[in-house]
């Protein structure tokens, strides 16, 4: 293969980047080991933590972890990077690794854990896992995420339900509306809200937020099996299925329920719009609940949660996880303490109550959760048949495929001249190209 064609190929660009990261990893590990062997091994009592928790509720959740880590005698050096879905943090992490300045702890989620682990960057946490019986304590899906190969290389924090519908209780009560359970009821609810002069749905045109709404529609249309065929297996026949057209057309319908024009806003601003009664509904991951609670709105008071209409039996999930970089042997003891701490029942309970997510532990007590969290945790606990890995939040596929799909769906959403049929053909072509490259 010529160099030009190699570089122009999207998948190959990813491989080039991975090779660069691998070289950087080797240099980092080599330097760390030389430093460790040239002087008596000492432990450092601080850890720099890179993450993308920068909203008010997310900062409160991070502060709780920092305080608990401080109780262990270890300082949390915060490196929060703004940007929804971790887009900015991912770029910063890669640049820092290439510069030889990787953080000791970083938020890496989903498929990305395996990619970084394949390069040899991540600290082996098997000792912590075995000592604390993680395999027996965590849901199998969570355990598989943190152990993509032979070794545990991440510690899980919480599970988010992406298919969450938030609705304003006062508006619904005034109009005698019930939370919709299927598409037809959702359409009827939106029509009544519009007739009353109320914006039915709060939404941003930010690319990842648009695609998150779209993957909700895919799940509602056909359930987890089709969702996996489409986003995990990247099946060309699945992309050409009429169900994709149906989901795209429904996305266009939902656009008419939003503010006009649909502005590109960070997700906390969309939540604030909802909190100010400027829209009656919000479809977003349950981190929005953490933000609403932080504003002083109690669950089942000003607002309540339900599943995205048509997805009541399912859980479109994202799992927050931390990985430790194995670039400084003097930090290992502190890194292992943080890993152990995060997974303890007490921290799981307190952290997830602030963040809006639910515990990764199978022994959590749902009776102590609010109605939104209880519905999320009990649904996820039913197992893989009801679970659907989120595309947007890196649970379903690699970065290159994810990014290509997000660009495609965002273009369809923002440009009304682009048809559903054109978008379907382009998605099938993306899958065809990636499938060819992956089998070379």
Automatic annotation (TrEMBL):
<keyword id="KW-0732">Signal</keyword>
<comment type="similarity">
    <text>Belongs to the bacterial solute-binding protein 1 family.</text>
</comment>
<dbReference type="GO" id="GO:0042597">
    <property type="term" value="C:periplasmic space"/>
</dbReference>
<protein>
    <recommendedName>
        <fullName>Probable sugar-binding periplasmic protein</fullName>
    </recommendedName>
</protein>
<dbReference type="InterPro" id="IPR006059">
    <property type="entry name" value="SBP"/>
</dbReference>
<dbReference type="Pfam" id="PF01547">
    <property type="entry name" value="SBP_bac_1"/>
</dbReference>
<keyword id="KW-0813">Transport</keyword>
<comment type="function">
    <text>Part of a binding-protein-dependent transport system for a sugar.</text>
</comment>
<dbReference type="InterPro" id="IPR050490">
    <property type="entry name" value="Bact_solute-bd_prot1"/>
</dbReference>
């Amino acid at each position: 293969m010529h160099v030009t064609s190699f570089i122009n190929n999207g998948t190959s660009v990813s491989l080039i980047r991975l090779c660069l990261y691998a070289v950087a990893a080797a240099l980092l590990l080599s330097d760390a080991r030389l430093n460790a062997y040239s002087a008596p091994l000492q432990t450092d009592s601080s850890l720099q933590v890179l993450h993308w928790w920068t909203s008010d509720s997310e900062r409160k959740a991070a502060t709780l972890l920092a305080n608990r880590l401080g109780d262990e005698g270890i300082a949390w050096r915060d490196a929060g990077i703004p940007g929804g879905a971790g887009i900015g943090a991912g770029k910063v992490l890669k640049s820092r690794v290439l510069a030889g300045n990787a953080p000791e702890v970083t938020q890496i989620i989903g498929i990305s854990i395996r990619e970084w682990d394949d390069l040899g960057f991540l600290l082996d946490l098997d000792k912590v896992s075995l000592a604390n019986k993680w395999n027996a304590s965590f849901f199998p899906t969570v355990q598989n995420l943190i152990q993509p190969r032979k070794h545990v290389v991440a510690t899980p924090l919480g599970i988010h339900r992406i298919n969450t519908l938030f609705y304003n209780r006062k508006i619904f009560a005034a109009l005698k509306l019930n939370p919709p359970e299927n598409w037809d009821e959702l359409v009827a609810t939106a029509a009544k809200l519009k007739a009353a002069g109320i914006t039915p749905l709060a939404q941003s045109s930010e690319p990842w937020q648009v695609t998150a709404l779209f993957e909700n529609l895919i799940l509602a249309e056909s359930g987890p099996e089709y969702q996996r065929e489409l986003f995990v297996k990247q099946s060309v026949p699945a992309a050409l299925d009429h169900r994709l057209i149906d989901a795209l057309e429904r996305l266009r319908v939902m656009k008419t329920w939003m503010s006009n024009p649909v502005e590109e806003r960070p997700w906390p601003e969309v939540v604030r719009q909802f909190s100010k009664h400027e829209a009656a509904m919000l479809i977003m991951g349950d981190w929005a609940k953490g933000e609403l609670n932080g504003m002083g709105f109690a669950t089942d008071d000003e607002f309540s949660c339900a599943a995205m209409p048509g997805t009541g039996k399912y859980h479109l999930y994202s799992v927050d996880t931390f990985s430790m970089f194995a670039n400084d042997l003097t930090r290992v003891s502190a890194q292992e303490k943080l890993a152990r701490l995060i997974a303890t029942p007490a921290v799981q309970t307190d952290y997830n109550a602030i963040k809006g997510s639910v515990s990764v532990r199978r022994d959590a007590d749902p009776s102590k959760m609010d109605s939104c969290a209880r519905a999320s945790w009990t649904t996820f606990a039913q197992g893989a048949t009801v679970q659907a890995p989120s595309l947007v939040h890196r649970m379903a596929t690699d970065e290159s495929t994810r990014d290509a799909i997000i660009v495609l769906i965002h273009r369809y959403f923002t440009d009304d001249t682009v048809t559903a049929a054109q978008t379907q053909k382009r998605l099938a072509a993306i899958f065809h190209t990636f499938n060819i490259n992956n089998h070379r």
